[in-house]
């Protein structure tokens, strides 16, 4: 399928590794010029060099930390200087450390609220006017399957990410007439460093081996395995495409059928 986004400009948050990096690569392979963003200049530079070596969409990067109060200013300035504008915004952030609901403190809640919710909303609002002016835009927010089925021992994530669901759905209705789609993509168990860390934490809590924990988790997934970053990224690329112009206000799961809810 021709996604018809060759020459578009995309900002992908938290793209030094994992799902964000995978999405940036997938978009660049469709001819999109991508701006990567994260906290590791070395990894970002390496990622951009690899993308540029393929010779499709061009890649550049900006160092920015979602926990920094200057994040929105830094990234929006880089969008203007390095991309010359924006067509596609992929909101993405790292998740908080595991823990129970009783582990949540007001201080931790406030800290992660800014990095996982507030600054994503603020950046989107900053970049929206140019999308409206050109009559075309794609806003995709990566969240978690925990927004539809809370994940045990990820209480802080289960608390904060659903806030983005209500925001995303509301925004979708407000900007649809401007040719802008707003969707959410929910990863299940995708083979990333984050998943490896969660498996390791589960193994430590249970006293089981890491191999046993991983095998048991994969057995609970209908397709019988962890997802690949490339599979998740391909789904993201479609949602950012021209053929997906009638898909908005939705939450799309990429979880191998793991969620039990309808």
UniProtKB/TrEMBL annotation:
Q: Which Pfam families match?
A: adh_short_C2
Fetch the Gene3D superfamilies from UniProt: NAD(P)-binding Rossmann-like Domain
Q: Which family does it belong to?
A: Belongs to the short-chain dehydrogenases/reductases (SDR) family.
Q: What is this protein called?
A: 3-oxoacyl-[acyl-carrier protein] reductase
